[in-house]
Specification:
The chain is 84% helix and 0% strand. By secondary structure, it is mainly α. The protein has one domain (3-60). 0% of the residues are buried.
Length: 62
Amino acid sequence: MHQRTAELEAIDLMILDLRTWHEEIRHKAAWKCCRKELDQLQKELIAYLETRKSEQLARQKP
């Protein structure tokens, strides 16, 4: 697999994982009173990965 394609696949998988509801992690965050911070960090990470994906796609265009 081409390096950039592999990176795009990895980015897509990571975004999918970040958007997946993980009950155990959410429960721990609620228990530790950091649910709001967890949600904010999740949004920031998704935004970062989406930006990185866009940059990779722009580099692939002829």
